[in-house]
Amino acid sequence: RKTAPMPQDILARKGGTPLVSLTAYTTPMAQVMDGICDFVLVGDSVGMVLHGLTSTLDVTLDMMVLHGKAVKRGLKQSMMVIDMPFGSYEEGPQQAFRNAAHLMRETGAGAVKLEGGVEMAETIAFLTKRGIPVMAHIGLTPQSIHTLGGYKVQGRGEAADQMMADAVAVAKAGAFSVVLEKVPETLADQITAEVAIPTIGIGASANCDGQILVVDDMLGLFTAFKAKFVKRFAQLGDDAKLAVQAYADEVQARSFPAPEHVFSDKNPNT
Ligand code: KIV
Ligand code: NA
């Protein structure tokens, strides 16, 4: 691929080859996934993953701008989507537009993501009609953790109808895709079959139109806890620990730095 996809290209992948996506928060990690991921999400998970916060509620617009700028510098062939943080869009369409425009202008993101279903449909329509592509996010919406009462599976039993209504509402409002987080597999499949926009699963179903994971989770870098839906494709946290210990050992043994790491006063070129 030569150029980054646009929201229309993502939309056109409905029912096709699954969309591949991950979160990123820094330039080097964005470079690793550039051209492999269809889109890269600057998630508000940055607060927990990189800043040691206990929820995403404390993440600010300024933090999203800073990390969004960093990620954008690492991307040439993947689209960048950026999360609207808690408190930056819930008041209404005008507030949402102002802050979404700020995020896109400052970071160069191609789209924003916001949490919510039926109750956010008006805002999603307002943004999309005014040039801001929106990815919706329903199911477990971490910014609502205090009203949801915990990070539990959403949409079980009677709650399934409401979640289907949420998916239909955000699609009708013009969202170009919708993240389904922590919903039962059968419900995720029903939503995927029902709506005309791509569903992006995280703790949902392999039949979704795409998948997303938090990059530090799938690399084994974030190890404070592991959700059931996380698969660790590498153990970089363990590797880092071993590397730090090896460094400490060599420093104390005076075997690092070795001759090739130090400078002679004779040859100015080395
Ligand atoms: O912030 C985030 O990482 C997300 C993804 C898990 C979808 O919203
Ligand atoms: Na998020």
TrEMBL record:
Predominant localisation class: cytoplasm
Keyword terms, alphabetized: Cytoplasm, Magnesium, Metal-binding, Methyltransferase, Pantothenate biosynthesis, Transferase
Record keyword Metal-binding present: yes
Top EC category: transferase
InterPro entries: Pantoate_hydroxy_MeTrfase (IPR003700), Pyrv/PenolPyrv_kinase-like_dom (IPR015813), Pyrv_kinase-like_dom_sf (IPR040442)
Record-annotated active site: E181
GO molecular function: 3-methyl-2-oxobutanoate hydroxymethyltransferase activity; magnesium ion binding; methyltransferase activity
Residues noted as binding Mg(2+) in the record, renumbered to the chain: D44, D83, E115
Positions of 3-methyl-2-oxobutanoate binding: D44, S45, D83, K113
Intracellular or extracellular location(s): Cytoplasm
GO biological process: methylation; pantothenate biosynthetic process
Cofactor(s) this protein cannot do without: Mg(2+)
Record Pfam families: Pantoate_transf
Leader peptide range in chain numbering: none
Gene Ontology terms: cellular component: cytoplasm
Domain of life: Bacteria
Biochemical pathway: Cofactor biosynthesis; (R)-pantothenate biosynthesis; (R)-pantoate from 3-methyl-2-oxobutanoate: step 1/2
Keyword Transit peptide: no
Cofactor note: Binds 1 Mg(2+) ion per subunit.
EC number of this enzyme: 2.1.2.11
Annotated catalysed reactions: (6R)-5,10-methylene-5,6,7,8-tetrahydrofolate + 3-methyl-2-oxobutanoate + H2O = 2-dehydropantoate + (6S)-5,6,7,8-tetrahydrofolate
Assembly information from the UniProt record: Homodecamer; pentamer of dimers.
Family, similarity comment: Belongs to the PanB family.
Function recorded in the entry: Catalyzes the reversible reaction in which hydroxymethyl group from 5,10-methylenetetrahydrofolate is transferred onto alpha-ketoisovalerate to form ketopantoate.
Protein name as annotated: 3-methyl-2-oxobutanoate hydroxymethyltransferase
Origin species: Sulfitobacter donghicola DSW-25 = KCTC 12864 = JCM 14565
